[in-house]
Structures are given as C-alpha cells and as structure tokens.
C-alpha cells in the first residue's frame, strides 16, 4: 500500500513538473504544432486545379478533398449561403487575377479540417512568394465602434454590390461558421490604393463563430486582421509574415489564447512590423465611444523574433517592438513569452500614465527574454517608472537573457519546431 502511495505521489509530482514547464507561452503536454502545421510550405507540391471558383456563390456549396479548387478573381459567398469545405481540401489562389474569397455578412463558412487532414489555402504558383493572392475575408454583423456601425472593407475588391463588402451590426452572438485546422499561405496581395490585404480578415465576426487551429505563413500583409466583433482565437499561428501578425481595431472584444507569432527581421516589409498591433480606432471623429471599445484579453502567447545576430539586427533597425498599444484600448496579457524584440512593448504617447490607464494595460506572469528594453512609451527616452511598475512583484513578471536553445524546447527544428518554453531553466527575475 505504501509503495502504491509513493508511485501515485511520484506521478503527480512528475505531472506537476511537466505542467510547470509549460505554464508560460504556448502550452500543452504535447507539441500541438506537430501534426497539422507546415513551416516549409514552399517544399509542398499540390495537385493542379480541377475546378474553378469565380464570381458569386449564391447557393449552398460543398468543396471536396478529391478536387483542387482555383480562386479566380474576387469570389463572394452571398445571400445567406453556406460554403462547406471538406477536411484535406486544397484551394489555390490564382496569381494572375490575385484571387480572394469573401464570406459576406449573413453567410457562413464551415471549414472544419482535422489535425491529420487540414484545409489549405495557398498560391497556385510553382515558386510561391508572399502576396501571390488575396486572402480569406469573413464579414459578420457583430458590433464595431465605427459611427453608424456601417463599415466597408476598403480592399478594392471587385463587386457591384456594396453589401458584399459591408460588415457590422448589433449581434455580438452572430455566427459566421467554423475555421478549424486551416492553413493560409502566401496571401496578402498588394493593391495600389489600399495597400496589402491580410491573409485572414475577421470583420464584425461574432462570438458563436468557432475559430481554432489556424496557421498563416509568409503573408505580405498582416496575418490576422480583426475589426470589431466579439471572438476568441485559440491555437492560432502566424509565421514569418511581412507586416503585423495580429492586428486588432474598431472596438473588437478579442480573446487570444495559446497562440504563436514567429517573426523574422529578414522578411519584414518597409513599415513597422509587430507581433500584436492593438488599436481602438483610427480617427476619433469616426468613432462612437458609447459602443464597445477594443478589449484584448491574451493568455499563453509566445511572441518570438528569430535572429541570427540579434544585437546587430537591432542596431541596424531590423527589429521592432513585439506589441504596440494605442490610446483608449484595454489590453491584458498573462502567462506569455516575449522574446527577442526592440523593445518588448510600446505604448502610444497619447496614453496618459495614470492609475486608471495602467489598470487597463496589464502584463502579468509574463516572461520577457532578450528584449532591448521591456515596456516603453513611444518616443520617450526615460521609461524607468513604467519599467519599475511592471517589474514589481505584484505582476510576477520574469526578465531574462537566455539563448534560444535554452529558452525553447526545440525552436531550431526546421520541420517540427517546438516553441514551448523551458520554464525550469528561468533563473533571472526582478525585485524592484
């Protein structure tokens, strides 16, 4: 009996240690990236298209794994239609016409892949590059803070009906469908008037929409753009995009959990590129402050900048901050990892540093590693007070200068990297 008790005690101790190792950053007893993600998408060869998607899809439609589909031009799912995509289906964005897919307000997408059979959106070119095609756009009728709640996606999409690019309403419970085990590769076409598209745009998307296990890689624009709405993103991955990884604006109520952003200073575009770009609005006159304002609640994120020579890359200006937070936005992050940035966080200089605003911007139980400074005010040279505030024991943050090989379990694995934190090797902390 005593022997059994000791075995049970040993088991719980071991499980507790494993849990502790994975407490900060992306978490899981196993590497959940392993089965469905692809970190070398340029090495994957897909079948040529057997069917074409173009114009408007106005009747319920199902796409099958046995076919390969080509998005030609701007394709719209309209008239409260449901587009269902079978696990394992491949949809190619046409390079020549810069194909895109928009799920209009009131319609749905059911893209419910499997970990062993993900749904893939990618370029139709043999040699793929960022910006080869448009991206996936989902529009809903959840609330934004834009005046009159009547917004349009200004991406230059070709449609004769304005309702096909409109989003927003009062239905926070709206349901735009399912994205699960989906990869989006080489999206983010450039437009002359509107800049780059994002790989996945979620505009006015409501909380009944199920959003899990979505990977964006090598996007020319932002990986994920969230405009208004009320939604939860779980196990999302942004890999080596040129612009922002997660861009959140227009009064979005966004929960972001157990998700990853991997940046590289060698693929970023000319504009400042961040892992998280959190705003409440673009222009005050266009904002209704009586409605929902941007609230981001983030937990177990890993924001990681890969660099061959971090000190040099910072010196020549290739590395930016991981997180930028704009005025009147609420942002809270817990149990996360921010590694290799310059600095970790920048707060807009329009934010008055007082108790009310600091209560809205919280960093707790987060591991800051190899960052050239931690939390700064934009264009302010002395940020000692802010550093001391977030460095106090009350927030239980950790500060370290550990090499990547000792920080992550296996970040150098080219095919199956493991970005979970080696929490048991953290030795540095602050006692300000």
TrEMBL record:
**Span of the secretion signal?**
1-20
Q: What is this protein called?
A: T9SS C-terminal target domain-containing protein
Q: Which UniProt keywords apply?
A: Signal
């Amino acid at each position: 009996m005593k022997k059994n008790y000791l075995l049970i005690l040993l088991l719980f101790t071991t499980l507790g240690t494993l849990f502790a190792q994975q407490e900060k950053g992306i978490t899981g007893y196993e590497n959940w990236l392993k089965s469905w993600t692809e970190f070398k998408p340029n090495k994957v060869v897909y079948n040529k298209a057997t069917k074409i998607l173009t114009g408007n899809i106005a009747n319920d439609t199902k796409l099958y794994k046995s076919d390969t589909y080509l998005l030609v031009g701007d394709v719209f799912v309209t008239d409260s239609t449901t587009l269902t995509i079978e696990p394992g289906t491949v949809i190619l964005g046409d390079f020549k016409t810069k194909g895109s897919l928009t799920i209009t307000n009131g319609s749905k997408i059911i893209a419910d892949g499997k970990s062993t059979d993900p749904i893939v959106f990618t370029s139709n070119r043999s040699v793929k590059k960022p910006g080869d095609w448009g991206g996936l756009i989902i529009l809903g009728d959840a609330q934004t803070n834009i005046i009159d709640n009547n917004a349009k996606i200004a991406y230059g999409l070709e449609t004769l009906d304005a309702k096909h690019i409109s989003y927003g309403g009062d239905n926070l419970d709206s349901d735009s469908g399912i994205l699960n085990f989906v990869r989006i590769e080489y999206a983010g076409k450039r437009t002359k008037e509107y800049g780059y598209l994002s790989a996945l745009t979620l505009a006015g998307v409501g909380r009944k929409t199920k959003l899990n296990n979505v990977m964006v890689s090598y996007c020319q624009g932002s990986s994920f753009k969230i405009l208004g709405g009320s939604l939860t993103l779980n196990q999302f991955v942004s890999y080596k995009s040129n612009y922002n990884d997660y861009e959140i604006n227009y009064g979005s109520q966004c929960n972001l959990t157990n998700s990853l952003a991997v940046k590289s200073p060698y693929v970023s575009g000319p504009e400042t590129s961040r892992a998280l770009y959190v705003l409440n609005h673009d222009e005050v006159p266009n904002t209704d402050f009586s409605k929902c304002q941007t609230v981001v609640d983030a937990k177990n994120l890993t924001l990681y900048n890969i660099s061959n020579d971090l000190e040099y890359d910072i010196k020549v200006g290739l590395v930016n901050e991981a997180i930028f937070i704009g005025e009147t936005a609420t942002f809270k992050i817990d149990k996360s990892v921010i590694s290799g940035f310059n600095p970790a966080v920048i707060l807009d200089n329009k934010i008055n540093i007082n108790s009310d605003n600091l209560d809205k911007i919280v960093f707790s139980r987060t591991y800051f590693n190899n960052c050239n400074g931690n939390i700064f005010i934009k264009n302010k040279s002395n940020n000692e007070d802010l550093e001391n505030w977030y460095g106090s024991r009350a927030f239980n943050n950790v500060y370290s200068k550990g090499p990547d090989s000792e920080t992550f379990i296996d970040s150098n694995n080219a095919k199956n990297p493991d970005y979970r934190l080696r929490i048991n090797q953290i030795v540095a902390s602050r006692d300000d």
